């Protein structure tokens, strides 16, 4: 096969770049995976709780959450987490480690896709490493979210389609459809819409292609493209059909699960009960999670979208960009929207734009790199200024700011030298990558550890408690404690409830100081957390924008009575 010969040659010629890509992914994506110093996402707490409860109860086919079958989420993410917890032991790191592997795999697939299309190892490495440094990968590679699996399978299916277009071998089409079928267990039937658009965008371009004399030359391609879609979508049914048969034969719940999985959950996004959120959330989220290369992605996307392709690989690249636009329009229809909905399409944008850069003259994208450098430098200076103010106002150690200031000064001098000497695109490219890497390192190793104030203490006598009562307005708060203290029995209670878990036996957690202190309890320790929606005025106040979480333990007399039983 064409791919086999290429792959062997790639391993021999690209070993250094692939090894470097592995090391850089480990350095930039793994730190912080086992702790709280990360950019959080609300749903992760529920995902982790579902994984642990399913593993503890051996409920593998139907994952459980809060003692009830979690029928509203596809099972693949939970299966992956259960496997990882079984392999490494129950921990945040074990549950998040698959996300790292999936995003690293996505980076490698971008590399292989560009190399297969004829790109140089240096170009393939630059684009794949730039993708690794995006905010989306930085955040979600440390989270237990379905977007990690979705991202990997979208770029995997796209690379198989690229190989089919280049080699004309339909076995790759069959494999792409098969992978698309597996991904239905990640996102449900919506993924089939994604993959169908990615495949169909090339078909539309090919069928409606006009000859230079204005004649229609795509008529002969109609039946070939129709056959391609039949093969692709037929092979995508293999895994879902097997899974459906297993569900229906295993339990009566299978039918209910499929009804919710295929219809209820997806139609719920259009429900009038859900407020219709702004359409701008979708494109803004795409650019946000492309940072610090947002400007380069936007400029490359816009310019290449309407550029007439001059080669087969550029036609494929153009089809990927049009597919992203089409999927974006799909996400504008439901009422429910979120900034990360297009996150899985970002690697497709990097691959699609990268296919246009193959065998191009360096001057054609030198301006784009320069603009992105100034954009990233400007954002870095804003972040630095904010952290200087943050550190001075709160009386924190400012050594990290001094170090990052020196780093940005060196970056500025390096950029100025490149412009004076006319060093060219390779130097400007390296400048952009180093600046992006430095900014993300500053965020991970300096900013996040200082601004992430966990509700759960990392030390103190409370962490040894085995029975805990969480008194708070938000029941999801209990999930945070349950995930952080897996050996403890944790119950949630709403403040003021007539019947709650303040029983004189359990340790108590209050998010507001109780007056008076519950009978039979004494204050054990406190924990500072940020107030919700902190304002500048609150930061300048004596509380510095913080409030306390109060932890109480049962009094000795109660403990003694308990021990005597």
Automatic annotation (TrEMBL):
Residues annotated as transmembrane: 12-30, 97-114, 121-138, 144-164, 171-191, 197-218, 230-250, 280-303, 315-333, 339-358, 370-392, 398-415, 427-445
Subcellular location: Cell membrane
GO molecular function, one term: mannosyltransferase activity
Native species: Leptospira hartskeerlii
Transferase in keyword set: yes
InterPro entries: ArnT-like_N, LipidA_mod_glycosyltrf_83
Highest taxon of source: Bacteria
Domain ArnT-like N-terminal: 73-245
Record key words, sorted: Cell membrane, Glycosyltransferase, Membrane, Transferase, Transmembrane, Transmembrane helix
An annotated GO BP: protein O-linked glycosylation
Phylogenetic classification of the source organism: Bacteria, Pseudomonadati, Spirochaetota, Spirochaetia, Leptospirales
Membrane-topology annotation of the record: Multi-pass membrane protein
GO cellular component terms, A-Z: plasma membrane
Protein name as it appears in the record: Glycosyl transferase
């Amino acid at each position: 096969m064409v791919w086999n010969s290429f792959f062997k040659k790639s391993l021999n010629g690209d070993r250094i770049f692939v090894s470097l890509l592995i090391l850089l992914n480990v350095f930039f994506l793994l730190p912080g995976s086992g702790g709280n110093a990360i950019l959080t996402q609300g749903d992760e707490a529920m995902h982790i709780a579902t994984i642990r409860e399913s593993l503890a109860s051996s409920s593998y086919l139907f994952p459980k959450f809060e003692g009830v079958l979690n029928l509203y989420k596809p099972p693949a993410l939970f299966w992956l987490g259960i496997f990882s917890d079984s392999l490494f032991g129950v921990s945040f790191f074990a549950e998040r480690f698959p996300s790292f592997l999936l995003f690293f795999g996505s980076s490698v697939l971008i590399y292989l896709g560009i190399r297969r299309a004829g790109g140089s190892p240096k170009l393939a490495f630059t684009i794949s490493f730039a993708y690794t440094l995006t905010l989306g990968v930085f955040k979600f590679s440390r989270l237990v979210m379905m977007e990690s699996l979705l991202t990997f399978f979208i770029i995997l299916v796209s690379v198989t389609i690229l190989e089919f277009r280049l080699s004309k071998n339909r076995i790759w089409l069959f494999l792409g459809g098969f992978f698309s079928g597996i991904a239905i267990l990640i996102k449900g039937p919506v993924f089939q819409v994604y993959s169908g658009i990615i495949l169909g965008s090339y078909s539309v371009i090919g069928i409606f292609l006009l000859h230079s004399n204005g004649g229609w030359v795509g008529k002969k391609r109609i039946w070939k493209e129709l056959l391609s879609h039949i093969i692709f979508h037929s092979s995508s049914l293999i895994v879902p059909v097997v899974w459906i048969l297993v569900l229906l034969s295993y339990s009566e719940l299978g039918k209910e699960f499929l009804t919710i999985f295929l219809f209820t959950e997806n139609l719920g996004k259009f429900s009038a009960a859900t407020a219709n959120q702004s359409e701008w959330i979708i494109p803004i989220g795409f650019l946000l999670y492309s940072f610090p290369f947002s400007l380069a992605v936007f400029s490359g996307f816009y310019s290449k979208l309407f550029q007439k392709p001059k080669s087969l690989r550029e036609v494929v690249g153009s089809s990927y960009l049009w597919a992203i636009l089409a999927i974006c329009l799909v996400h504008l229809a439901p009422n429910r929207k979120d900034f990360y909905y297009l996150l899985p399409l970002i690697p497709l944008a990097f691959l699609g734009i990268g296919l246009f850069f193959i065998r191009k003259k360096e001057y054609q994208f030198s301006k784009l790199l320069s603009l992105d450098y100034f954009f990233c430098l400007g954002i870095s200076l804003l972040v630095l200024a904010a952290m200087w103010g943050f550190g001075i106002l709160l009386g924190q150690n400012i050594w990290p700011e001094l170090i990052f200031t020196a780093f940005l000064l060196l970056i500025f001098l390096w950029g100025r030298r490149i412009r004076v000497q006319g060093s060219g695109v390779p130097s400007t490219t390296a400048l952009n990558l180093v600046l992006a890497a430095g900014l993300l390192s500053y965020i991970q190793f300096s900013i996040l550890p200082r601004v992430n104030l966990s509700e759960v203490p990392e030390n103190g006598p409370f962490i040894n408690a085995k029975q805990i009562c969480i008194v708070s307005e938000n029941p999801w708060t209990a999930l945070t404690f349950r995930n952080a203290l897996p050996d403890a029995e944790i119950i949630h209670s709403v403040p003021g409830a007539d019947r709650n878990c303040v029983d004189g036996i359990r340790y108590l957690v209050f998010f507001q100081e109780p007056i008076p202190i519950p009978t039979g309890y004494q204050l054990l320790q406190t924990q500072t957390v940020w107030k919700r929606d902190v304002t500048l005025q609150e930061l300048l106040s004596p509380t510095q924008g913080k409030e306390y979480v109060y932890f109480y333990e049962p009094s000795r007399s109660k403990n003694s009575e308990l021990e005597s039983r």
